[in-house]
Amino acid sequence: MHEVADVARVAESVDVLQIPAFLCRQTDLLIAAGKSGCAVNVKKGQFVSPWDMRHAVEKVRDAGGERVFLTERGASFGYNNLVVDMRSLAIMRRFAPVVFDATHSVQLPSAGPETTPPQPKEGWNGAPGQGGVQSGGQPEFIPLAGASRRRRRRRRRLPGSARQSCASQSDGANALDLKLLPEVLDQLIAIQSAL
């Protein structure tokens, strides 16, 4: 969900409303989602501490939304890098169920392959070509991220995947290739069985 005006119409057709990370602090959107009657997934913004996500959960619940959960997807660590502090999973679990997005957590924002960026306007003082036009990623770390989550005995995990991961326009560089999904799932099931 991006706009309050769309919440009621979308809620008629779905079971879960998702609040994007960059909008996770938008009070009017959280309240509208809470009033919808749907479950609400609030993605934690890369710029928000895990303990501050309690406020988003409270806004949804205060509006009547009892089924609210959070998605951990990493925190900004310098430029073009996301990291996951695994403590955030335990912190956020104190006030809501938590889903771990293993694929987004290996994203390298704006660090993808350089393509021809728009030409800067006259007088622009920035350095053209300093950041990728698309985000990059390190999908080879998805199994490690997912396995780390399993070791913490959490039950929810979101393994994003794509048939042609590099061709995807959104997060393609950090999507798990579907050919690798059976092997990754086998690893995660083995870890879960050992617990």
Structure description:
This protein has about 200 residues and is an alpha/beta fold. About 30% of the residues lie in helices and about 15% in strands. The chain contains six helices and eleven strands. It has a five-stranded parallel beta sheet with strand order 1-2-3-6-9. It has a two-stranded antiparallel ribbon with strand order 4-5. The longest helix is centred in the last third of the chain and has 14 residues, at about 180-195.
* Mean pLDDT score: 77
Uncertain segments are: 124-129, 150-159, 161-165
Largest sheet: 5 strands, parallel
Helix content: 25-40%
Fraction of residues in β-strands: 15-25%
- Broad structural category: alpha/beta
Overall outline = globular
Instruction: Report strand order across the widest sheet.
Output: 1-2-3-6-9
Tell me the total number of β-strands.
Answer: 11
The DSSP helix count reads: 6
* Head-to-tail CA distance between termini: 37 Å
